[in-house]
Structures
1.
Amino acid sequence: MTLQLHGNIKNYEFVRSAETKDEVEIQDSITHEVLYKKFRQTSTQTYRSQLVDPIPEVLLVEIEGKSSKDKLKKVMLYQPDDTLELKDTGILGFEYKFSWEGENYVWKRRSLGFSREIECKMVHGDDPGIGVAIFKPGKKTIGHMTIMYFNLERIGVNDKRGLEYVLLITMFSFLDKLEDESSSKKKNVTVDGLNEVVEEGSSETKKKEKWRKKKSSEKKEQKEKEKRLVEERRLAEENEVRRREMERREEERLRETEIKQKELLKKLKQEKEDQEYARKLLLEEEEEEEEERLSSHNYLRDKSNQRPRNNFAYEEHQLRTPSSSSTSTTYSPWETNYRNTYYGNPAAGAMFNPENSPPTTPPPKRTKKKPKEYKNEYGW
């Protein structure tokens, strides 16, 4: 058997066998060579479909489940053996998922208007995914399937042939499900045409209506949530502005308080200096008054001790010839010095000298020292 590759793309045509309706041939779309055959086992109560190599009639892969409508089916590969699950994950639409070599693949209807094409993609989370296969219903045949090998190389698939078998058998399970639904409802829907992959019924309409209501409520909740977030953000900004304003006012108040404290300390220091200077001035004035008082007192005392000149001879006579009855007069050192200075020393025979007479004029007054000019903030 020769596999035809057309620019890293494989194109297959699904053609129903003329011998039995449970057999479908998978042909190359250009050479029309039969590459695979698909058989459905109808002898058992469960659903089972197989993909075989037509020449050696070797089983390549099969899928089984409780029925063709079962939401979970088991896919089994041979040579080498492997097992995986095909799960119906669609709530309102067509969606099936399986895993291969650690990557997730999903079958979905293509979102191109009213397109009836089905596409398989490798997906990562919410990414749009990378397409690996597309199925398009045909008019004269069951349909046409394309496998994009260039994307398999881009994804880095190791067993590309095994993934090809899985894509083919899972696509046939969808066709079998449609055929069973059509026969149970007695509708004249030809499988060859595959007019619809998922039939819209009353139950589906109810599901869609329920889904619309759910989406509407979710949108409403989302809008309310956004409004709450906007309001919370606005309140947070207002609180932040209010907090900054309070901090600015507190800083200004502290700055003003610090300035006032500095001014008060400066004022108290100046007042203290002024008081100290006034005290010094007062002490100086008191000292000057005391000196003036003492000087005036000494002058008056000296003047009171001076004797008149006309009685000098008598006094000298009395000093030189003391009476025998009287005792000698004792003078203080100051008086002795005074008499020796102005009258001479009687013991040495000195006589009174008018030129040495004590001064008759008082000593000059001592002028007050004018205090240094000092002006503070009070003006004195």
Note: The radius of gyration is 67 Å.
2.
Amino acid sequence: MKSSNSGEQQDDIWQGGFEELDILANNNSSNRKYLYSMKDMSGMVAKVRLDSLEPLDGFINQGEEFTPNKQGIFLASPQFIMDGGEVANTLVYIGDDIKRFANRLEQETAGRVDLKLITIPLYYKEHWRAVIIEIDHDKKNFHIQFHDPLGEFRQDLKDKVMVTLKDSLKYYSSSFLGKSELSDKDFQQSENKIVQQGRGNGWDCGTISVQNITDYINNFKSGNDITQTKFRIDQADTNAKQLDDCRIEQIKNLYIVQNGAEMPQRNVNTIKNAWAKQQAKEHDNAVISGKSDNNIVEQGNAVVRSNAAEQGNAVVPGNAVEQGNAIVRSNAGGSDIKSTANSQEKGYILSLIEKIINIVSGVNKLLSEYFGKQNISMQDNDVKQQIEKPQISDQKIIRANSESVTKSQSFVEKIESSKDKNRHC
């Protein structure tokens, strides 16, 4: 997914490296499309620990990553894997983190509490996911679950994670499960393929991942299926409202972690108002863009209809040919084409113009035949008309024919010109 913390945003939206970005700084919280940073996620999972895990008596560092808890759940700090120009993988240290937490848990509970669940927020290629490890002390194996808010966890990333975890869990298996050697059969894999984020949303992966991790932990504590989560894309409107509310709560929780106090309501209102203005502006821009495209096509149609009707009236006189002109006006001006700016509509318009030209060409053919017959009739009756009125000269007849044909050609040329202009829209 494309990160929304990019140059497309205002200059004051983000400053510094991704690891140090802070949603509570530089007006970042007012941007609904802000992508959670490593620092943001660290603070948010700390609040999850405070709310969901019950620390052992006597520990004052509540919310700290390695503080032992009565549930035997290790919620790791956010990990990231980067490649390309920069190669880095903090996940390679997850084994040391698991070892540290497990040893402290063993020491403080005298073996009464085992490590049962490990949850890892994972960042890779500008996208947040979650990895969950259940430890079965009876079967002495590990169940690793992958969850991507987009509904499918990349296979190449799975492979990287599994290579790291197989090595990282060796110490725990040897020290706490009594199994020094691990094979592929000791690792069960599954994936929670639920589309929660939806295509086109490149900023809520962090919001959903934090909520999913919270759900996993609470479900595990209550003995329920840990993969049951709150967000599903099949109810888009409700989902969007839930995501807004969830992000607000996470921002408020982060404020508590950083400041030790509740976020003032005026700050919350400012964030919500900024989101509303941002979404309204985006909606208006989309509408304006759509109308602009439609107007370009509609104006072209209006010119074609006007030229076709006016030229048809000027060229074709008489009752018989007026019917042909009515056809032209009906086809050119009577059709109310509700145009949209897409290639199919434009193709239809060009096809209509071609039909108009064919009709006009037929009318002009009738016109030519009409004037040709009229000339022959005038020549046959020339002697009879000499007594009643002066003879019409051949040059006048030729000039009349020439003018009529010239007008007809002018009409066709204008229609052809209009057709060529439409081809370049």
Note: The beta strands are 73-75, 79-82, 88-89, 117-124, 128-136, 141-147, 187-191.
